[in-house]
Design a protein that fits this description.
Radius of gyration: 19 Å
Number of helices: 7
Largest sheet: 6 strands, antiparallel
Oligomer: single chain
Low-confidence stretches: 1-5, 217-227
Helix content: 40-55%
Strand order of the largest sheet: 2-1-3-4-5-6
Distance between the termini: 25 Å
Number of domains: 1
Mean pLDDT: 85
Strand content: 5-15%
Number of strands: 6
Length: 235
Amino acid sequence: MSEKGTTFSPLGREEIGGIYIGLMQQIVIRLDAVRDAAAEAVANLDHSLNWRNAEFCYLQIRRICEYAALAVLVAHGERAEFLTNSLLKEWNAGNLFQKITLLNPNSFPTPVKTHLNANGSGMHHLEIKERLLDGDAVKTIYNACGDRLHASSLRRILEGKLPEYSFDDIADWANSFVRTLENHLILLPEISSVMLVALRDSDDGQVHCSFADAEGPAILVPENSPAKFALVGKI
């Protein structure tokens, strides 16, 4: 940490990868928990205690938003400007994504399919899949879950504006996170690099990530595919 206590020293890739994997593991176990809790409630929608399942799901999805924001922040840990006191102290997922986006507009995880050796031995190609989430969408989900977890105000009660529980919303939000994060990349253009992440790696079913150095800037080219890249090593 610096003498003034305002920033941390840039992190190494092994440390970044280890923290990122830990945060993604928290997301995985919560996505599984949401799936099970929602399925239990949907199997008996008339059960008087379904509110417990709903509130549990909203809380876990809110935590998923927070872990996702923290993961994106630590992915940029090689750059000191992402380790300022303002960013390190931020806990609100919507605010954190907004601050990160100001520094890297392409920071949000992009869902991909990897084609190994498509550009020659050791040079791989990433096919960009449909984007279901971005920072603004996560902020909307985050706030919606908060609305359903708080008792609200008397004004809203009198106006009959209390939101109802929706297991359809819960399923849609959870599926959006799964499809976005199951295989994704984060562009790190300032260091000509990308981070590739699999929530359930084909080798062992665990979370793994790899850094890849691009040939040229790590950007989305007009064909909507990242530049050629070579893997540095899986963590």
